[in-house]
């Protein structure tokens, strides 16, 4: 075993048992942070849905006009927007699972 490995194995974690806690900053701070994060999440979700609708309409227009190149491009944008919306809708589930697992 090398010296570095031995030193790393013997070292103790100075932050053992330390967890992040913002309750010392007050309840008003926590509520404002929660409000800010929910607004950002809502705006991201609205933007992703807007991109999804817009690209879906563009893809339909390209399909109607017979423009296969634009249809293929907009199909990729539609699929990216669908994944973005799905990911944003899963954020509360993921946060809840993280809170459940970490306590």
Q: Structurally, how many domains make up the residues? A: 1
Strand content: under 5%
Stretches where pLDDT is under 50 for at least 5 consecutive residues are none
The structure class reads: mainly alpha
> Span between N and C termini?
37 Å
* Rg of Cα set: 23 Å
Helix content: over 70%
* Average pLDDT score: 85
Number of helices: 3
State the total count of DSSP E strands. Answer: 0
Structural account:
The chain has 103 residues and is mostly helical. It has one domain (27-102). Helix content is 80%, strand content 0%. It has helices at residues 3-10, 27-65, 68-102. Helix 2 runs antiparallel to helix 3 (68-102). The longest helix is centred in the middle third of the chain and has 39 residues, at 27-65. It starts with a helix and ends with a helix.
Write the layout of secondary structure elements.
Elements: H1 3-10, H2 27-65, H3 68-102
Helix pairs in contact: 2-3
Features of the shown structure:
about 80% helix, mainly alpha, about 100 residues
Produce a short descriptive summary:
This protein is mostly helical and 103 residues long. The protein has three helices and no strands.
């Amino acid at each position: 075993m090398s010296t570095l490995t031995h030193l790393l194995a013997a070292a103790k974690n100075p932050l053992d048992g330390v967890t992040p806690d913002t309750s010392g900053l007050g309840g008003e701070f926590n509520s404002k942070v929660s409000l800010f994060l929910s607004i950002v999440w809502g705006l991201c979700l609205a933007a992703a849905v807007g991109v999804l609708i817009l690209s879906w309409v563009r893809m339909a227009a390209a399909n109607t006009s017979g423009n296969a190149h634009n249809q293929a491009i907009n199909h990729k944008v539609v699929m990216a927007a669908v994944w973005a919306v799905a990911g944003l809708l899963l954020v509360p589930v993921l946060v809840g699972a993280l809170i459940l697992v970490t306590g």
